[in-house]
């Protein structure tokens, strides 16, 4: 069923104080909530719910607000749920009218909501952060016409892959699933596999590569025996075959791969087979394991900072120049403004637009040269999203999780800039009011303050 209204809006809470009478209306979260048009999400996501089936869904504003706060302050699902119970400002931001002493949702409800919305519709959150920034005076529509586009790696929450580690994890996974389904094995290899993996790590560290490779070959042999034993014993059981199908497929892929394999065929994680190995030429981190992400920001610095206009995950590790057309299309879809110029480190010419790349000499005017020097300003934006947001480590599952996390990381960055902008406006207003000889214009409008 469609989302229900908050219970606190339906009941007559005569003996309880309303949140708006308790909290400070000058608080950044309170002012930020007034800038966001929450009805946009009701209209955009309303078609995803059946009219007369199941129990009423959780309020859309509650789920949207929790995800925005989560990515604005780099919190986990559990942490944002705990903060909801602790802070009246968070509850007011989520649309509550009275303070709630119990959590209206389970942590897993956030996972199910993300799956329901999907990556494409999640762009509405990024678009609304830009619209709120426009209402607050932090950015103007003219800043959307010239953008800077670059790519980075969104690392997945996986351990550093090694052959011995992957083979040992495969043995543990199959043995655990066999015990769960009541399958009697000839030998589980769990104990000897653990010792073999430890020996392989110790020998590699000591420089005895050939002896370490012998332990890895043993692990591969044991994993193959275990997979064949389970395959024989579930041959006549359709239910067990369905339960083991995905896991055995990943295990067989692991057994087939070689050291020289590259690209999409290489397996780096059992629980996240979509993980890719990407090298960006960094001295500190030679290889990163995750997915490539394309990022578009404003080229000129807006009053509130450099806002993110588009975020896209790029599965398959495509060439950077091939991601340009799709990224510009997303920017125009989110902002509603046609991009006139784009600046990036690697690029190709796109139809109807002027694309400039770093170190380009021909056809460069002084204005374009000055804007090209702004291209490197996207690097600190990427760094902030990785340090202060969830772009530095993605915990969401699957390819859809990669796309959703990238979009929400951009929305969280925009909200951090907008929150800082509102704090600066408030400080400027207080300083102007406390000045002995204040001028008629403090440098900002009354609309921006309220």
Would you kindly provide a brief summary of this structure?
The chain is α/β, with parallel strands linked by helices and 450 residues long.
Rounded average pLDDT? 86
Number of strands: 6
Please state the CA-atom Rg, rounded to the nearest Å: 26 Å
Helicity, in percent? Answer: 40-55%
Give the terminus-to-terminus CA distance: 36 Å
* Poorly predicted tracts of residues: none
Summarize the main sheet: 6 strands, mixed
> How many separate structural domains?
3
- Roughly what fraction of the amino acids lie in strands? 5-15%
Structural class: alpha/beta
Order of helices and strands: HHHHHHHHEHHHHEEEHEEHHHH
| Tally of individual helices | 17
Based on Cα principal axes, name the global outline: globular
List the helices and strands and how they pair.
Blueprint: H1 7-10, H2 28-35, H3 39-45, H4 60-72, H5 77-86, H6 88-93, H7 107-121, H8 123-135, E1 146-155, H9 163-180, H10 190-205, H11 209-233, H12 238-256, E2 276-278, E3 288-298, E4 308-314, H13 324-335, E5 341-344, E6 354-357, H14 366-372, H15 378-388, H16 398-434, H17 446-449
Parallel strand pairs: 1-5, 5-6
Antiparallel strand pairs: 1-3, 2-3, 3-4
């Amino acid at each position: 069923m469609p989302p229900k209204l908050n219970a606190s809006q339906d009941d007559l809470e005569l003996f309880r104080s309303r949140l708006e009478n308790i909290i400070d209306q000058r608080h950044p979260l309170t002012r930020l909530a007034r800038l966001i048009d929450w009805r946009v999400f009701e209209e955009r996501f309303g078609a995803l719910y059946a009219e007369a089936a199941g129990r009423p869904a959780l309020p859309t504003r509650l789920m949207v607000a929790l995800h925005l706060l989560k990515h604005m302050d780099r919190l986990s699902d559990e942490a944002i749920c705990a903060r909801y119970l602790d802070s009246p400002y968070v509850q007011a931001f989520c649309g509550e009218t009275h303070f709630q002493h119990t959590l209206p949702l389970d942590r897993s409800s956030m996972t199910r909501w993300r799956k329901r919305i999907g990556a494409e519709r999640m762009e509405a959150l990024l678009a609304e952060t830009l619209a709120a920034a426009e209402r607050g005076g932090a950015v103007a529509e003219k800043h959307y016409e010239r953008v800077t586009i670059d790519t980075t790696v969104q690392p997945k929450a996986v351990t550093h892959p090694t052959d011995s580690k992957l083979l040992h994890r495969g043995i543990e996974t199959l043995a655990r699933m066999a015990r769960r389904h009541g399958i009697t094995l000839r030998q589980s290899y769990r104990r000897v596999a653990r010792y073999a993996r430890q020996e392989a790590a110790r020998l590699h560290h000591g420089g005895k590569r050939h002896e370490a490779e012998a332990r890895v070959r043993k692990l591969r042999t044991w994993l193959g025996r275990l997979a064949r034993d389970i395959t024989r014993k579930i041959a006549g059981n359709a239910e067990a075959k369905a339960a083991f199908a995905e896991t055995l497929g990943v295990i067989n892929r692991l057994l087939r791969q070689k050291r020289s394999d590259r690209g999409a065929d290489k397996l780096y994680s059992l629980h996240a087979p979509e993980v890719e190995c990407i090298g960006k030429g960094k001295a500190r981190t030679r290889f990163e394991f995750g997915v490539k992400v394309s990022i578009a920001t404003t080229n000129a610095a807006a009053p509130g900072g450099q806002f993110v206009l588009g975020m896209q995950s790029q599965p398959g590790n495509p060439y950077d120049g091939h991601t340009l057309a799709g990224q510009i299309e997303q920017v125009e879809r989110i902002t509603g403004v046609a991009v006139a110029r784009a600046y990036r480190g690697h690029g190709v010419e796109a139809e109807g637009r002027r694309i400039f790349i770093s170190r380009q000499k021909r056809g460069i005017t002084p204005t374009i040269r000055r804007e090209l020097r702004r291209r490197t300003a996207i690097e600190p934006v990427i760094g902030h999203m990785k340090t202060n947001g969830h772009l530095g480590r993605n915990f969401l599952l699957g390819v859809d999780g990669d796309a959703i996390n990238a979009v929400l990381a951009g929305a969280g960055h925009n909200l951090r800039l907008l929150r800082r902008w509102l704090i600066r406006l408030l400080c400027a207003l207080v300083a102007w009011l406390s000045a002995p000889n204040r001028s008629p214009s403090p440098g900002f409008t009354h609309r921006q303050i309220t």
